[in-house]
Amino acid sequence: MQLPLEITFRGIPHSDAVEAKIREKAAKLEQHCHNITSCRVAVEAEHHHQHHGNLYKIRLDIAVPNKHIVVSRDHHDKQSHEDIYVALRDAFQAAGRQLEEYSRIQRGEVKHHPRPDDIEEV
């Protein structure tokens, strides 16, 4: 990624391995959209549950021209998000889908649905 990437860890110590994975996934976002102007990633460990490990919450704030894309999900019911790498994968996949949609709209490749008065009755 050409732009500075801001990475914040909350409630967990900094990890070089996690930071490297975030940088790798952020660079891949440019495949979906080439005009990303900024990307901020916050990694947060939610409180420890009695029967579960820590659940990780990933928040992505991505700025593109004329739009701000935010991916943030609470994963209280997903035990898979006890693994920080799975939480990262899910968040970056969601961001990729939103960036693809943004790019399609920018290129004018939007599906136009017929209005009810345009539909002929048979």
List the helices and strands and how they pair.
Layout: E1 5-10, H1 16-29, E2 38-45, E3 56-64, E4 67-72, H2 84-107
Outline:
This protein is α+β, with helices and mostly antiparallel strands and 122 residues long. It has two helices and four strands. The protein has a four-stranded mixed beta sheet with strand order 1-2-3-4, with helices on one face.
Can you give a write-up of this model?
The chain has 122 residues and is α+β, with helices and mostly antiparallel strands. The chain has a single domain, classed as Double Stranded RNA Binding Domain (2-Layer Sandwich). It is built from 2 helices and 4 strands; from the N terminus they run βαβββα. It has a 4-stranded mixed β-sheet, with helices on one face. α1 packs parallel to α2. The longest helix is centred in the last third of the chain and has 24 residues. The model has no long low-confidence stretch (mean pLDDT 83).
